[in-house]
Amino acid sequence: MKTRYLILEDGSVFKGNAFGSEKGTVGEVIFTTAMTGYQESISDPSNCSQILTFTYPMVGNYGINPDDFEAIEIGLSGIVVRELAEHPSNFRNQSTLDEFLTEKNVPGIEGIDTRKLTRIIRKHGSLKGKMTNAGEEVNVGEIVAILKATEIPKNVVEQSSITRPYPSPGRGKRVVLVDFGMKHGILRELNKRDCDVIVVPFNTSAKEILAMRPDGVMLSNGPGDPTDIPEAIEMVKDLIGNVPIFGVCLGHQLISLASGATSFKLKFGHRGGNHPVKDLTTGRTELTSQNHGYAIDADSISNTDLEITHVALNDGTVEGVRHKTYPVFCVQFHPEGSCGPEDSTHLFDQFIELMNKESKKETSHA
Ligand SMILES: NC(=O)CC[C@H](N)C(=O)O
């Protein structure tokens, strides 16, 4: 394997081995503590333009299969692992992680101390990084200056969403699913419940959505800073009060912003498959799958018509809210799991119940 370097904005240099694509790359370096599900994490569009580090020490050991993708295209800029499994073994395995990343043109680096890297990110807070190959000029000072001047891209939702609507038919409730860089797991959970889904681009207007006569609107996850898509915040503002809404991750942030709350960037994100979240309405704790770098400011909720329903037990941040009057609720974590536990898939049932309740109300008014 060829030598490859990962250089961070704070001047740290990690020397490792190259795998995947040969190209150099730049991105925000993030880490996930998930112990399995690397295929889901790598294909999650919420990681668009980021360099994903796995804290789990060996990655790639069950290879790549055709079933576990969360998107067709890979949005992330690179991956970092302690040890790459070169000889995967699994009955579903069709290629190695190395072959897959080469085909998708995503560079990887292996053989570095990922615990050290994670501790740097946790201490310093979010950092940008560059992967570069041996043989290319490695002038750390210059690279640090370039990284400091590099802006995190603002058009990542546009890059990850679709441009035209498409149906995913069923015979149940009609759901318009807004794709901000949707994980397939969300569509899978709606399909499992026989929803008649229409997936629409992130910049669809509320008027266009309501003209599809949905029983409910689902707002997906997606990459980047939620304040970078004001048109989506406006769309959600116009939907609240007119249709039941369920939001996941970015969808949760957009509902909160549309209701007057504010968001902030976490020092380092929540990413993994074992984040405990307390449901304040039942007192139950669920283990959740998470992948977010921003959160909603708890204090800002008190000036809105929302109430907090879920909190993160690790750091106390807001993990879910609901509207006090309208049938609108959302969570910051991933109830669809993938990767990670499926303790919270019942929230999709809650969405179906909410739509049933609202359509009954309409029928009785008629
Ligand atoms: N998974 C998501 O939807 C992430 C939401 C947002 N991009 C964040 O990082 O906080």
Automatic annotation (TrEMBL):
The active site is at residues 249, 334, 336. PROSITE patterns: GATASE_TYPE_1. Residues 1-173 are annotated as: CPSase. Residues 2-132 form the Carbamoyl-phosphate synthase small subunit N-terminal domain. The keyword Ribosomal protein does not apply. L-glutamine binds at residues 46, 222, 224, 250, 253, 291, 293-294. Its EC number is 6.3.5.5. It catalyses: hydrogencarbonate + L-glutamine + 2 ATP + H2O = carbamoyl phosphate + L-glutamate + 2 ADP + phosphate + 2 H(+); L-glutamine + H2O = L-glutamate + NH4(+). Keywords: Amino-acid biosynthesis, Arginine biosynthesis, ATP-binding, Glutamine amidotransferase, Ligase, Nucleotide-binding, Pyrimidine biosynthesis. Composed of two chains; the small (or glutamine) chain promotes the hydrolysis of glutamine to ammonia, which is used by the large (or ammonia) chain to synthesize carbamoyl phosphate. Tetramer of heterodimers (alpha,beta)4. This is Carbamoyl phosphate synthase small chain.
